[in-house]
C-alpha cells in the first residue's frame, strides 16, 4: 500500500500537537531558576525546593512506561483531553500551594497527568505525517520540546521578579488552551487496525532509542540544573538574568530544528545521534569551564541544539520500531528520557558541591557513554547508516 498519510494533515488542527510537546519539558525544569524564591515563600530550604524537579519527573517517567499503550487501547483523543484537564488542575494547585509538602505533591500530579499526553502527541505525528515529511515533523516536535525546556527558566525567572507563583501561569494557560482547542479527531486517530500490544515493544531499535534518550536527558537536565548554580555562584546573576542565560538552550533548539529534520532525513537517526553527542560534549565543557559568560552561553546553546537532534533521532527510532503500537513505543522512549532527567539532579549536584566547576564538567562523560552505546550496538558504524536511515520509510498500516 502507498503512503497516503501526508494528505491527512491538510485542513486539520495539528498545532496543538506541538504546543503539547512544549508543555512536558517546560514543566520539568520551570522551578530551577526560582528555587530560592519558592523556598522562601513556602518557609523551606532551597535544597528541598530543588527536589521539585525530581518530584515532577519521577511520576512522569514511571507512568510513561505504560501510558502510551493504555492510551492506544482507551482512545487517544479521550485520554488526551482528560489528561490535559487534570494537568491544568495540578498546575493551579502548584500556584496555590500553602506548604512545601503540598507543593511537591502538586508537582508530582503535574508529572503524572502529563505522562498521558506527550507520547500520544509523538504517535499522532507519526501517524499523520509519512515519508519525507516525517523527519521534518519530528525535528519541529523536538524543537518544541527544546523550547519548553529552555524557555521555562526565562519565564519563571521573569515571574519571580513579582511572585514565584506567577511562573505557573504559562503552563496553566497552555494546558487550558489545549483543553478548549484539542487536536482535530483526524490528527489523533489511530492508523493501526490491530490492538496495541506490549509484545511488539521488545525490539532492538526501541531499546537503543531508550538508552540514547536516557543519556541525552541525564546530560541535558544536568546542564540546566548546574548552570543555574554556576552562573549565580561565579557571575552573581539574579533570577531574571539566569532565565535569560538559560533561554539560550531553547532558542538554539528551535533554530536548529530545520537542520535536525534534514539531517534525520538525509543521514538517518544514528548519524544524527553521533553528531549530536559530539556537540553536547563540547557544549557541556564550555558551560562548565567557560571563564567568561559568553563562553558559558555558547555552551548552553550547543547543548540545546544537540538535544533537539537527539530527541528527533530517538523519536524516529521509537515510533518506527513498532508501527502497531506507536504510542507505546514513544511512551517507553520518552519514559527513559525523563528517567534520565529525574536522575540528573541527585547524580550531579553532589559532584558540583564537592568539586565545583570540575564536578560540573563530569557531565560531559554522558555523551561519551552514549557514543559508546552506539558503537557497541554497531549503530555508530558508517556502513550501517544507510540501512537504519530506511527506518523513516515505513508503509501505512
Amino acid at each position: 500500500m502507498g503512503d497516503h498519510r501526508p494528505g491527512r494533515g491538510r485542513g486539520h488542527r495539528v498545532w496543538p500537537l506541538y504546543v503539547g510537546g512544549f508543555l512536558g519539558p517546560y514543566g520539568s525544569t520551570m522551578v530551577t531558576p526560582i528555587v530560592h524564591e519558592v523556598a522562601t515563600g513556602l518557609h523551606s530550604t532551597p535544597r528541598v525546593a530543588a527536589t521539585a524537579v525530581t518530584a515532577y519527573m519521577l511520576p512522569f517517567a514511571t507512568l510513561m512506561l505504560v501510558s502510551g499503550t493504555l492510551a492506544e487501547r482507551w482512545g487517544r483523543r479521550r485520554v488526551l483531553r482528560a489528561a490535559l484537564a487534570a494537568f491544568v488542575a495540578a498546575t493551579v494547585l502548584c500556584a496555590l500551594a500553602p506548604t512545601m509538602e503540598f507543593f511537591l505533591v502538586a508537582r508530582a500530579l503535574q508529572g503524572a497527568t502529563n505522562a498521558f499526553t506527550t507520547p500520544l502527541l509523538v504517535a499522532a505525528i507519526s501517524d499523520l505525517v509519512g515519508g519525507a515529511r516525517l523527519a521534518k515533523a519530528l525535528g519541529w516536535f523536538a524543537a518544541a520540546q527544546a523550547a519548553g525546556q529552555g524557555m521555562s527558566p526565562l519565564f519563571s525567572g521573569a515571574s519571580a521578579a513579582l511572585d514565584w507563583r506567577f511562573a505557573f501561569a504559562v503552563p496553566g494557560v497552555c494546558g487550558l488552551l489545549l483543553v478548549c482547542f484539542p487536536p482535530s479527531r483526524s490528527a489523533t486517530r489511530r492508523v493501526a487496525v490491530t490492538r496495541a500490544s506490549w509484545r511488539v515493544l521488545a525490539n532492538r531499535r526501541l531499546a537503543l532509542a531508550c538508552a540514547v534518550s536516557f543519556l541525552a536527558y541525564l546530560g541535558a537536565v544536568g546542564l540546566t540544573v548546574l548552570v543555574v548554580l554556576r552562573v549565580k555562584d561565579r557571575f552573581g546573576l539574579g533570577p531574571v538574568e539566569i532565565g535569560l542565560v538559560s533561554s539560550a538552550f531553547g532558542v538554539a533548539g528551535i533554530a536548529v530544528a530545520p537542520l535536525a529534520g534534514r539531517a534525520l532525513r538525509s543521514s538517518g537517526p544514528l548519524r544524527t545521534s553521533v553528531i549530536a553527542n559530539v556537540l553536547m560534549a563540547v557544549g557541556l565543557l564550555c558551560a562548565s569551564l567557560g571563564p567568561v559568560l559568553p563562553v558559558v552561553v555558547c555552551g548552553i546553546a550547543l547543548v540545546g541544539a544537540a538535544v533537539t537532534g537527539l530527541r528527533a533521532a530517538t523519536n524516529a527510532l521509537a515510533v518506527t520500531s513498532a508501527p502497531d503500537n506507536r504510542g507505546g513505543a514513544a511512551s517507553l522512549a520518552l519514559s527513559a528520557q525523563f528517567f534520565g532527567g529525574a536522575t540528573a539532579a541527585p547524580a550531579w549536584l553532589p559532584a558540583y558541591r564537592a568539586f565545583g566547576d570540575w564536578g560540573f564538567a563530569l557531565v560531559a562523560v554522558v555523551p561519551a557513554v552514549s557514543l559508546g552505546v552506539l558503537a557497541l550496538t554497531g549503530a555508530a558504524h558508517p556502513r550501517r547508516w544507510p540501512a537504519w536511515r530506511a527506518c523513516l520509510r515505513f508503509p501505512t498500516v
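Residues 16 and 273 are 27 Å apart (CA to CA). The chain has one domain: 9-392.
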